[in-house]
Amino acid sequence: MFFTSMSSNTISAKAKSMYGKRLTDADYKDMLRRSSVSDIAAYLKENTSYQTALAQVDTHNIHRGQLEDLLMRELFNKYTKLCRYNFTGDNDFYNYLVLQYEIEQILKCILSLNAKTMADFILDLPSFLISHASFDLLALAKVRQFDDLLEVLKHTPYREILMQFAPKTDEFIDYASCEKALMTYHYDHLLGVIRKNFHGQTKKDLERVIKVNVTLSNLMTIYRLKRYFSAQKEEIAEVLLPFEFKLNKITLEKMINAQTIDDFFDVFDECYYGKNNKTVDNSLEFEHHLNQIIYLYNKKLMRFSTSPPAVLYAFIILNNTEVKNIIKIVEGIRYQVPISQIQSLLIL
Prior knowledge:
Elements: H1 2-19, H2 25-32, H3 37-47, H4 64-83, H5 96-115, H6 146-152, H7 157-163, H8 175-197, H9 200-229, H10 233-239, H11 249-257, H12 261-270, H13 283-304, H14 308-334, H15 339-345
């Protein structure tokens, strides 16, 4: 009990200390005034907590992909540093981000197989994950057909999950079904680990933050399928993940059955997540709103939660948001997007 309490308190204290070194509004304004990827990398190296991550980098020759990889590596390093304070070593919860990244790489592999671009797959492979993955990550780069992927995953739960989606000769792999099956497994596993290892407020905080994220992801899926693909209700229902928080079945069905985008917004405005929200008809603004809900919820959890595992989970989401903000600025400057427009995309 002593070691469990000590490790939990250490994780919470360290996470909050790291969060205290996050980018400020002034940092974002300074980056928005830069004119290139190199200038932004140099600013991060000289003025922020990313100086260690970029210490060995020649910022004059860095490209966008390299910078993103280094930022994601730094995020993962922070995660592994925090997880080392789990002195008991017997809680699978602290492996959740590795599982999440593994699934992301499997799904990228499936996309590449469908697009016949596997020759380039290794270029985007996150090297920091290689020593942590439950399967040979480098072997993914050698995959040329679905059976090869199943062979790489033969000693993992992922193989059995994906076997049912094996395509017939020359058919596309059903990416949407693979994604739903893998992500359902991920969240089922994570929630099961939480039920097994945590109790009281910690269990409540973790279950809530996970289900809030999944619920908002489902809302975005419904919106996109309706707006861009005019998907039928049966098609939409098939791809939604089977988790929710404060979104009852009747309200969800109303959103799925909405005949127009305006009808969808009418239902959204009356649900838990839409109240006090001004209805918008621009997809970017709507996505921004949902991401803002996630950000503010996790920011509040980070500040007020007394549950160290929940603090860790919130910290990773907030830090990932920061990395995405940096990449949005890089992309905006690269394509000469007006500063005001780039700024409107940031989740702050």
